[in-house]
Amino acid sequence: MKVRIPTPLLSYTGEERTVEADGATVDDVLADLDRQFPGLRFRVVDEQGRLRRHMKVFVNDESTRDLSTAISEIDELTLMQALSGG
Amino acid sequence: MGSVGTSVLLVGTRKGVFTLTGDASRQGWTLSPPKFLGHIAQHVVLDPRNRRRLVAGVSTGHLGPTVFWSDDLGGTWTESTRPPAFRTGDELGRSLAAVFWLTPGHVDEPDVWYAGGSPQGLFRSEDGAVTWEPVDGWNDHPMWTTWAEWPEQNTPDGSMLHSVNIDPRDPAHLYLGLSAGGVFESTDGGADWHPINAGCAIAFLPETDAEPEFGHDPHCVRLHPTHPDRLYQQNHCGIYRMDRADARWVRIGDNMPRATGDIGFPIELHPRDPDTAWVFPMDGTDVWPRTSPDGLPAVYRTRDAGTSWTRCDDGLPAPAWYTVKRQAMTVDEEPSVGVYFGTTSGEIWASADEGDTWNCLASHLPEIYSLEHARPDPALQ
Hints:
Low-confidence stretches of chain A: none
Oligomer: heterodimer
Structural class of chain B: mainly beta
Distance between the termini of chain B: 11 Å
Strand content of chain A: 15-25%
Mean pLDDT of chain A: 94
């Protein structure tokens, strides 16, 4: 499936804004992304499996913080950074 | 970055990493462009054992914390393949928010590094900061939830573990500081720990007859490199010295001018003389502005282990309203020791005469979190 990558993570994907990854859940897809782009997952998900506070995940146009959310090949996953900082 | 002179200042800021490269006279300094622009760089340290491996603890406003290392003084960086983190499935559900402090290990353990975190975890690398493991003896100590600030974190920017000091005579003899929590010691390589806070004030808790064993707020703890039975600390509640045979902290800040007080973040030690130290006092009155008292920045120096203090402000601006954070003061090892500090207003000030006179090396940088002097391997120049 197609995964859209936010600017803070482009250094991991070689500046690719859209990449392909596989998985039956959001967490599976993040694990596949980490296999392709080592280190990416830990910047997005903490060591207890929680989505970091200022990161967002959309399955198509639905926001979710539940990484067990099922996802299929026809879905599109978007990683985004939340409003944060200054 | 990558241009290397004889002396380098490593600058960690709220918006990235900079270096200042000095000439042999320490008069001419060249500022690098930023690396990791926009990243929060809590601490950047060169390994003094090989003078080649540079390690940085960084995060961003969005992304989790990590560590990068460089063997060409910041020309290229590689991310740790297993950054510091609590164990997955941790009973307390802890996750690391920041890699706050970095300490290279003992000279006999050439690839060991320690990292202190927020929350107050301790992490160790045995391969030059490429991979990290939690120090279970600390993180899972039966007293951790009592000693550490958890789950509430009352320190303004999050509770942190800092000031990891290693006895140069024994790699298993470690000290660390908790803001808040106190100073702790291990004599078995981190397997077990005990507090060593006797004599320290704890003015932010109700007075009791019994002297609290922990709960103090050391801001910065330094072990003297050539006299390792002597420790100094700048605490939330004063400046202290401990000679280990006495097993008690002595408030040497009582000898500071009363109008200045003895509150601050950093303390730095002379590399050879155990009686000489520098502090940067801040206003700890009223609502704790944490700027220099009366807006008059000054370093204070002792040459007699804290019995007396000399104000060192020749060349410093007045008035000025900045703070110097706990990692943002450093010294070199020249015969006339250079003293350096970085400010929350993005200035770097230097003295090549042990604090007598001061010059501004850089200004208009982001808020400075850390400043470390380093002398890189000449082969990298």
